[in-house]
Fold this sequence. Notes:
By secondary structure, this protein is mainly α.
Amino acid sequence: NPYVCHAYGLMEQREDNLEHAKDLWEHALQHSSTAALVCSLGELHVSNGNASLAKSLYQKHVSRLTSEREMTEVYLAAAWLEEKHFKNYEEAEKLLHIALDQSSMGNSRVQVALAKLEGRKIQSQQIGQHLEGFEKDKNSKNKHDNSKGRKLDVETIQQQQINVMRKRFEEACNAVQNEDSGLSKIMEDGRLYNAWASLEVKSGHLKSARKILMRGIEQYPNDATLQQAAGKVEERFGNYTGARDLYGGSLRIEPSAPTLVAYAMLQLRHPTETSAAVEVEEEGAIGNRNKKPKANFTMVERLFEEALLLDPKHGPVYNAYGNMELQRGDVAKARKVFERGENARCTDAASVYHGHAKLELSIGNVEKARDILVEGLQEVERLEGVMDNSYHERAAFLAHTLGMLELNANRAAQAKEVFANGISRHGTSSQLLLGSALCEVKLGREESARTFFEQAVNANKKHAQAWQAWGVMEMKAGNFKVAKTLFECGIQSAPTHGALWQAYATLESRLGNFETARILFAAGVQKCPKHVPLYQAWASLEMRGGNFNEAKLLIGEALTRDKTQGSGWLVAAKIEEKQGNEGLVGLILKRGLECAPNHAELYRTLAELEVNRFRFDAARSLLEKGLEVDPMHAPLYHSLAELEARVFNVDGLAKLNKRAAEVFNTNALVPPPASMQAWGNKIKMGRSNELIPDGVATLAEKVRVDIDIDNTLMDLDPDSIIEQMGGGFEADLDYISGEIEHSSTKQKPLTQQ
């Protein structure tokens, strides 16, 4: 019985009994051919590295199938194999055309596959031409004709790919609506409209996507996937009522895991008064009518469980479900959800392992998070031969998160290796390229870093952090004109990235161009009014110029917007110190520690104040507390060493030196022995004051409209690494006070990332 053999083989495959699964499927195929058996065995061959065996299998059995649907399945698998493993786009296109010719139903699946193949073919040809030209330039005898002049414009190639696919989808959809073609009567679903709308969403054309989906729904009112996609678009427009209605309509037509996840996430983010009524009444407060309704977690949990009943291998369900429990503070339950997903061997393994690793990171279990990411990458590599393209793109986040984890733990050489492996598998990912550049900066290889920075901004011209990091590196190297150009390019591409305005203004202030810096700060505040460090840095500039009233006004605004940022209290204390109000300095710093108890520099500054008052024990206690809060903040070790030397505490100096050697190292190629543990302790200390980490992102939420995940999710924000490169330029305090600038190694707590 082919159905029993197939099911039995799938079970054995899930338990890693691959040989038995293979024997079962081969045995069944001796008696009868089915698409399920052929495709499952072919995928097994591919995952074992036997692509040629899979090709022979498809060729042998496709002619034995009688069902159009089953023939389509095998032709699609064979075409994918030709493209992915043999790079033979012409043969893949030929196979898809054969499938289309043999279909009497118009076959929307094949038409979508053809459009996407044509787009990827254009991309492959353009990259191939670039590489061919690169080699010619490299081997050219003309010294002026070299490879440095030839750049790969990824954005242009991507736009050409989109245009080709858009044209193909538009022609196919117009043919469907044309009554003379006859396709409108025989085409079974609105898959073409869905794929076209998805393309427009990725391109940022939401209005076009909405119109396309409305056309599709009018043509295919009973297509559940069209209603689901339309709901996602309405959600992006802020039309939550319309989105809820469309999700409900989709579920009434045909319940599915993706729609249930989308509906559950909408209920979490924007609950209705009805769904939240029970929870509001339980609070018993009179003024609750004016409050935003809270999510009904019981209902959302039921939606997630229903989704898992429908599809227990749907990775985004586990990711969203686990993150919901984490945000509620139930770490144990969240961990169980992720472990369920890992045991289910999801087809989208990356989203499950990614979510689980972020959970462990959020509570300071850095080593465990690293192990999970490594295991996830191994699972993704195992599935890579049969992975859907969207899953393949999502897998890049595992490599990015692991690389940033290593980099944050001062393991630059290990991080570089992770990013290099990710780039080899995922190509022109701007985030991975930026990670490689940051590694090279850490290792002191500026020329190599420049190459990666250039590739990162070429891959995504709107990647603000790539422009910012590159500019900071050039600024630190004294290449001020280059840095200025990079900041200007970054601001032009991403005008709402506050850190770019701040870095540019800081550069101008360091060059003595105070009026230009003031103009940049003002423009930055106008464009990014919520970026608090801009107010802090501007206040520092005014303080340096002796404009204390303006400085106080700006820092007051910064603290009003966010009093938990310790940098603001440092600037406020510095202003009072400059005015000679020494009595207020200590009070402000102590207030700062009340509001930002995890800001290491506050402890160090207050300790220095105590040293100046000859209160050495109090200073030592503050510095020790600072190291407990952030064991990776190098200036704390410097200050404590100076204190111990001042009081001739030789034993204390020896212990401190040993402690520092475990966290830092003089050789960047050799990882410090306790760097991961130190970073984990820092995260745990931050968590004690903020139980639920707001920065833990739900991957399922991020991809709710199938947008390009690569551009939306920054797993471990490299801003902290960029700060290190610039010596902590966020408030420029050391520069203002004329002190020697410390090589800051402070990092933003994960909860803020």
